[in-house]
Amino acid sequence: MLNYTLRRLMFTIPTLLLISFIIFLILDTAPNDPTGNLPLTIPPEVRAQIRTSLGLDAPMYIRYLLWCKQFFVNEPLNLLYEWFGWCFNTCESRLRVTSWATRSPVVDLIVERMPQTLWVVGMSYVVGILIAVPIGVISAYKQYSWFDQLGTFISMIGFSVPTFFTGVLLIVIFSVMMPNDSWFWLPSIYDTTLKVTDWASFGAQVRQMLMPVMVLALFNAAQISRFMRASMLDNLSQDYVRTARAKGLKEKVVLLVHVLRNSMIPVVTVIALGIPQVFGGAIITEQIFKVNGLGQLLIIGIQGADIPLVQTLTFLFAVLIVIFNLVADILYGLLDPRIRYE
Amino acid sequence: MLDARATILDVANLKTVFNTRDGMVHAVNHVSFSLAPGELLGIVGESGSGKSVTMMSLLKLLPMPPAEIEDGDIIFDGRDIRAMSDDELRHVRGGEIGFIFQDPMTSLNPVFTVGFQIMEPLRVHMGLNKKAARIRAAELLELVGIPDAGARLKDYPHQFSGGMRQRVMIAIALACDPKVLIADEPTTALDVTIQAQILELIKELRQKLGMAIIWITHDLGVIAEIADRVAVMYAGQIVEHAEVRELFKNPQHPYTRALLETLPDMSGERATRLRSIEGQPPALSKAPSHCEFAPRCGHAFDRCLKENPQRRDVSPDHDVACWWDVKTGEPANV
């Protein structure tokens, strides 16, 4: 298993290098102009100078290699310096991947945005899973019952109604129609500056997270509960379930020990593969509730033709996807004794 | 038909149906049999004759719905299984009646160790703690002939061969010293040499432990090898029931006779084709109103298509459900 993991990790290096190059290539071909958002009064020759100062006149491969150097060498060295105070050659003046639009290092921007995304999107993923697993289990066990029918209906809605609809709907109900002094009133704008210091601020944090988390959790739960249900149904008809019953085990044990353990194998894989999307943020939902998370950062970067920002963010998502693919494979091996990686 | 000797299991008039979307399927139609302590009852019949469904009905192991036990009494050790609460029934399952299934490749849970799966009934029914259960589980594995039993408890089912897995299944079924062991085609999925080993094992265990066994198979050879008594099933009914030697020597029902004729003859010239019984088994979408075998039967006459024959005694330990009398070659006088 360790060998397998190490070998897979080795393979990820060329994979990721190739991915980073492809991303760079695509971004380079895109008809983006980083000066496009600047006022029209700026004369063309000044614009050309700005482009030159951003290094855009260099050939594509040079720019790519420079990004590689900044990202793969300078950024890790900087992290070492900031975390441990270790210094190699220069310490302060190292050239980091810098956002064109904000002139601040991209990694710092990401670190700034990460908590909001993890709290809102991550929490919605956790809530979604916590809702989905029991629903999937009960739906499968009581197939075609009213509970199953209701679960199927809600899943269909959760999956097919876009989050920009459910989000706005919730805002209309809980922020607009609900009286301001009502206990049920919820803020429609996520306040990043809120610091949780006591119970009151904790309550405020919960309230402002409630709507975006619910909107996303509904979507996640819809997906995962269907997987869970299908997987449970697959396993409920297996012979070993009959054996377990013939042994005189309680129905609860048959279901929650024998069937669930087997059914979780594919579901855990699906869940693990979905985690990179959590980091990617929920672009639309973050926009609706004004959560300044990673998804919103990416959108701003794309709109402003902020190539280093978009390149770095997209590449980090790719890293997460590759890593969680590996994690899913390893989890699969841990959960299913029949699978052993050599 | 049912004599006065001691019985451990007494099934009378069992009727099981399946309510499917395409209508009702009459899988088991008024089946009656009894089992004496320590006895081995063989049940033969072709696929779909209701052998397995009958056995599953005994312990309510069928998915209900669609299955439903419509009628009948199942008396096990003086207690009525149909009237039992879920808790009582659970104690009988695995505790007093052990079950072995056909396919050892799928009957064990792939994600739990063999030890865990053997220890489960021990802990549930005998209340053993983990340590005691592990010791007993190792003994059981040794009993069913798995070498290095203690170490193999930690292995998963896929690390065992088919025959070894069936031995594990037998160990699970025998874990709590059951009074009755129901073996549902336990050797069908195994190759012939392994089949012989499992048969030998069961014979040996039966002598050692003295439980009664119901052995379901479609292999008459296996029946001849181990059974004390045989019941032949066709279309969800027992059509003939006799002591094993009597059945092979003196088969009464045309279906039994046809089954015996399909066995390839080892002496004489090799037949160009194996013999088979013409026609198809009935679909069971209606409760039997006439003899279900009549359309395939060479002796069928008008009564066979009008009335369903009931089992009648032909000798003290032999009964048959047929309107034809083989001895006289005429319709039976009933």
Our Rg estimate of chain A from Cα atoms comes to 24 Å
Elements of chain A, N to C (H/E):
HHHHHHHHHHHH
Helix fraction of chain A by DSSP (H/I, runs of at least 4)? over 70%
Please identify which CATH superfamily of the domain at 106-335 in chain A we are dealing with: MetI-like
Spatial gap, N to C terminus of chain B: 16 Å
As residue ranges, the low-confidence spans of chain A are none
Rg of chain B is 21 Å
List low-confidence stretches of chain B: none
* Structural class category of chain A: mainly alpha
Largest sheet of chain B: 8 strands, mixed
**CATH class categorisation of the domain at 106-335 in chain A:** Mainly Alpha
Strand segment tally of chain A: 0
User: What amount of the residues of chain A lies in strands?
Assistant: under 5%
Number of helices of chain B: 10
What is the average of the pLDDT values of chain B? 83
Element-level helix/strand string of chain B:
EEEHEEHEHHHHEHEHEEHHEEEE
CATH architecture of the domain at 106-335 in chain A: Orthogonal Bundle
Distance between the termini of chain A: 6 Å
- E-strand count of chain B: 14
Q: Report the CATH superfamily of the domain at 9-38 and 46-89 and 228-264 and 275-331 in chain B.
A: P-loop containing nucleotide triphosphate hydrolases
Shape-level CATH architecture of the domain at 9-38 and 46-89 and 228-264 and 275-331 in chain B: 3-Layer(aba) Sandwich
